[in-house]
Design brief:
Strand order of the largest sheet: 1-2
Low-confidence stretches: none
Order of helices and strands: EEHHHH
Radius of gyration: 13 Å
Structural class: alpha+beta
Distance between the termini: 34 Å
Helix content: 40-55%
Number of strands: 2
Mean pLDDT: 78
Strand content: 5-15%
Shape: globular
Amino acid sequence: MEPLEPSGLFACKGGGPNDYCFIHARSNEMWVALLKIIGWEEAIDDPHLASAERRAEHRGEIDERNALHELATRRPDHP
């Protein structure tokens, strides 16, 4: 089975015990859309993150950026 990255549960705005969202980019198209939503467009052409397999190998870069957590907690236009 091919890896699906990013995929995970992230704490959301509100901070309560049930305030979580699951983010799952099943395809490269979904990955690109996610990058645009979180404002990390420079990662679109990054060869280290070009496929799910590569994203799995370099998950630390995604985690370091902490962009998915930021998306879940800071987007006032997406409650």
